[in-house]
Every structure is written in C-alpha cells, then in structure tokens.
Amino acid sequence: MTPPGPGAADAGPGEADWAAAVAAVRDLPADAPVQLICHVNPDGDALGSMLGFGLGLRRLGARRLRATFPGPHELPEPLRGLPGLDLLVPEEDAYAAPALVVCFDAASESRLGALVDRLTTAGTALVLDHHASNTRFGGINLVDPRAAATSVVAEELLARLGVTLDAEIAECLYVALTTDTGSFRFEATTPAVHELAARLLATGIRPGDISRRVFDTRPFGAVRLFGEVLCRARLDPGAAGGHGLVWTYATLDDLARHDQRPYVLEALIDSVRCTAEADVSCVVKQVGAAEWAVSMRSKGAVDVSRVAVTLGGGGHRFAAGFTGRGTADEVIAAIRAELDKALIEA
Ligand code: AMP
Ligand code: MN
Ligand code: MN
C-alpha cells in the first residue's frame, strides 16, 4: 500500500460544504440550543477551537450555547486560563437534543465517548477537523487534512459568518494553532499558518505570556517525574526498518508518587522525540490496570497514523495515538510489529 498522497481524499472542504455550514449556523434562531463538543482528553486545539468558535457564535447573538467534552469535567492546568471557559459544562449538562451540534478536532466518533449520541439527536451535526483519518461522521463535514489545526478551519468558518476576531477569540485560536504546530516548528507550518497567526496577534494578544502559561509551566513534581521516566527510556536502533525507535512508559504509580495529574505527561513525548538515533518515538502512559494511552511521533520515515489506525486509534502521519492493552512491553511489541509495514517509501 502506498501512503496517502495529494488526491481527492486529501482535498479540503468544497464550496458546497462551506455554504452548508454557514447556512446551518446562520439560519438558526438566536434561542436555538447549540452544543459544542470536542474530543476526549481535550488538548489545546480541541479546546481552543471549540471555545474560540463558541465566543464567535456568542458575538453573532447565540444565546443558548454550551460546550463540553466526554469524560471527567477536568481540564489540564495550562488550559484553565482560556477565555470562554464559562461556556463549558460537565457532559451530563450538555443539551440532550440541540438544534445544532458542532464537533471539534475529533477524527472519529470513538473520540466522543457518550456524547456520540448528539450526532443523531441534534437537528444538524457539523464536524470541524483536520485529521487525514477523519471518517466524515457529521451531516456537514468541514475536514481539511492540509490544515495545521482545527482552529484553521474554525477561523475560516467564523470569517465566512462575518465574525470579527477580537482578543478573546484570538487567544483561544492562537493556543490551538501553537499547540498543533509545536509553536510553528512542525511541517504543517505553512504561509497560511503564519498569516493566521498575524491576524490573531493583531488583536493585541501577548504571545510570550500565552506560551509561557500553556507550554512552559509545570509543577516541580512533574519536572522530577519527567526525570525519572526519561531515565528509563529505551533505544531500539533496529526497529522501523533500521530507522530506530525510542520509547518510555509512565505508570499510575509514577503519577501518584510525584502527586501529579495525568495531563502533565502530555508534554513528555517532546522530551523523547528529540533522540537523534530514532525516527520513531513513543510514550506509553498507563490509564488503567492494563490500559495505556499511547503517543507516537515520527520524523518522516514512518507513517505513524497507519500504525495507530491498525491498533484502533488515529491521528496524523507524523503524530498519532491509540489505546493499548496488556503490559507496556506488550504494547511496544505490538507497535514494533507494525512499524515495518508503515514505512514511507522515499
Ligand atoms: P497525542 O500523542 O495524544 O498528542 O496525539 C497525537 C495525535 O494522535 C492527535 O492528533 C490525536 O488526535 C491522535 N490520537 C491520540 N490518541 C488517539 C486515540 N486513542 N484514538 C484516535 N486518535 C488518537
Ligand atoms: Mn487534538
Ligand atoms: Mn488538532
């Protein structure tokens, strides 16, 4: 099988999709209930896109607006300063049958937990996303695999709806954009990304403050936890057809010993993927007795989304994940077995 190249499946939304999305929002009465949802364990793109878009709808006059995500009503500490958090409700308080549901940054229905039923109870289901593996599960799908973040799609829809960016909307979208581009370091950082960043910064938001708060602040306990978990990293130079694999794992006991919440481990992959000797990096994070949240990154030799999809997850070519079962060693063995099949031909 050849990796996905440019083609019909990679093309972004067509004019008909944009027109349908604009009509779905614009034709709603101001008092129609609108439910915004995003993927489980929301990251900066999921939450930032959702809240930025929600604030935009509020500017348009929407009066019954709620945002939520599946699972415990708890946010990573770095995201607790985002504007628009007053839109957030626990998932139990989401509208049962909204006129419109808008879904952010979820590649498939499996990322929506119990909220998946809103796709059918809602009058209209609008999906905004940028994962190549997106299954187009909405009634209207604005899915652009070339977009660096879901916030790129959200900003375009806001512009088409006639919403003027203000500092609050911009901060949300900026956090989303910087999260998914690794602060403008990843391949997806196109001229369009920088143009969007310029529009966002022009509202007066402070990028230094935002980046420090969202990316460069963690508790001392997390610093020590990282040290311990990085010490047990393993390098397997022969994996991935000789391109190399580096990996480590963190257990619930590690978190408990350092008195840390699971979200602090999200940043760990960045300290592992810098290994020069490995194309593929992997962090296996325990979430249950025999259940692990797996993060994978590639520098270009391997399409890790193919590995993730095979193992029940999803993501992008160079950043993907899935839920693993068994021991950490068994999870790594399953990944190693799939890596050779996911090599990208030069
Ligand atoms: P992460 O390593 O958690 O930052 O995720 C990297 C990418 O993989 C993101 O684009 C996620 O949307 C995707 N991803 C992570 N975990 C899963 C999962 N269990 N199922 C589907 N996609 C996932
Ligand atoms: Mn995401
Ligand atoms: Mn994203």
Question: How would you explain this protein's 3D organization?
Answer:
- By secondary structure, this protein is of the alpha/beta class.
- The protein folds into two domains: 6-214, inorganic pyrophosphatase (n-terminal core) (Alpha-Beta Complex), CATH 3.90.1640.10; 220-345, Diaminopimelate Epimerase, Chain A, domain 1, CATH 3.10.310.
- It has helices spanning 15-26, 44-59, 118-121, 150-160, 167-180, 191-201, 207-215, 220-231, 252-257, 268-272, 304-310, 328-339, and strands at 34-38, 65-68, 100-104, 124-129, 140-143, 234-236, 245-250, 280-288, 291-298, 314-315, 319-325.
- The strands form two sheets. Strands 6-7-8-9-11-10 form a six-stranded mixed β-sheet. Strands 2-1-3-4-5 form a five-stranded parallel β-sheet.
- Helix 3 (118-121) links the parallel strand 3 and strand 4.
- The longest helix is centred in the first third of the chain and has 16 residues, at 44-59.
- It is globular.
- The structure holds adenosine monophosphate and manganese (II) ion (2 copies).
- The site of one manganese (II) ion has 5 residues, from helix 2.
